[in-house]
Fold this protein.
Amino acid sequence: MAETPLVEAQGLHTWFELRQWGFLRVGAVRAVDDVSFTLARGEAVAFVGESGCGKSTLVRTLLGLHRPTLGEVRFEGVSLAGLKSAALKAYRARVGYVQQDPFGALPPFLDVRRILAEPLKVHGVSDRAERERRIRAALAEVRLTPVEEYLGKFPHMLSGGQQQRVVIARALILEPALVIADEPVSMLDASVRVEILELLQGIQRRRGLTLAFVTHDLTTVRHYAERIFVLYAGKVVESAPVNDLLDAPQHPYTRALLAALSDPDAANATRLREVPGGEPPSLIDPPAGCRFHPRCPSAMPGLCDREVPPDFTPRPGHRAACWLHDPGAEDPNHSIIIDGRQASGRGGPVHDVSQ
Ligand code: SF4
């Protein structure tokens, strides 16, 4: 029997209602919009996308901080939707969180010992000696040694890299099964980024953790993720094993991201200047059909701007939500008919999506 995935997200929608004006309720921000995936035990994955693609909302939904509007998250086979406060607290102990800004994530008025003791106290580790043992072990694991040098320090007395090691130690101290690292090195000096990524990777492998990185940076994911999910405007548009996705991207958006990275101007790495239209769409009123169609160089008028592409499997283990990978597209006798007329860019027998 197949092992239950550690995490299953099924048809996840996290929308935020906009303000009410008199009797009018004006729309919603569709930050996460029909996202499904599974995370296996012990794997390292990356969620990649530009700012505003829904990464942070997805993370907060996985952490149980946002309740999905539709769909559900299951952890070890149990839906988060049914958890009462005690069970939700137990769930949060199973999920560690490494924030983007380590200085902002650490309470400035607590020293390192008290920062690490706090989650242990909240989760019922009442024995002081046991807390001290676990605090020291966590600091040693993130290589803040000799441990005695760091226990009494306050966040402002630490470098950015040391602060992030404390954040990682805090995320690990309750021995989670899943760690979510949200842009864990984007605010650190370049000199310590590799150290922190290698530290996380070493811990993940040693402990057999599931590690989910959230990042806008495709340059480093090859080294620490096994699988990538590419997000665009609240949806996963492509997912695949890391080398497969980076060496043979199947979605025009992923190709555009990778093309931007090869630009000698590093500032282009997180923007898509090469793609017409230049900006990600509004999540309040996203484009109909494929949300990437206003920027897509391969868009097929009459199809991409009207019909949401389902997930296709252009290669084994590789999924892309793009009409270019409709298996019928290779067939010269294949066609898609919408409202009784043939969509552009296709010919052949009819695949009627107008019903
Ligand atoms: Fe481009 Fe159409 Fe594919 Fe969307 S579905 S990425 S618009 S070709």
User: Anything to note?
Assistant: The two ends are 38 Å apart (CA to CA). The chain has two domains: 1-94+177-190+208-286, 289-355. Residues 266-274, 337-355 have pLDDT under 50 and may be disordered. Residues 289-355 form one domain.
